[in-house]
Specification:
CATH architecture: 2-Layer Sandwich
Number of domains: 1
Number of strands: 3
Strand content: over 45%
Helix content: 10-25%
Radius of gyration: 15 Å
Oligomer: single chain
Largest sheet: 3 strands, antiparallel
CATH class: Alpha Beta
Shape: elongated
Strand order of the largest sheet: 1-3-2
Length: 69
């Protein structure tokens, strides 16, 4: 029987450009130290406003990675 087990971590990504950049940046950073990334879920989206303009996008992600046998 082959059971797959994953661990889930929570990370925060930020970007001055877009939510998508915040997501891809957070995943890229996690991939520097974790192997076998499998999926992500956006848990929260927020941002900063300065002088009536969006200054920064921020996302909270759950990222799962597979545990080795």
């Amino acid at each position: 029987m082959n059971n797959h087990v994953a661990k889930i971590i929570e990370v925060v990504g930020t970007s001055e450009t877009s939510v998508e950049d915040a997501i891809t940046g957070a995943i890229a950073k996690a991939a520097e130290t974790l192997d076998n990334l499998q999926w992500f879920q956006v848990v929260e989206t927020r941002g900063n406003i300065t002088d009536q303009k969006v200054e920064r996008f921020q996302v909270v992600l759950k990222i799962a990675f597979g545990l080795e046998d």
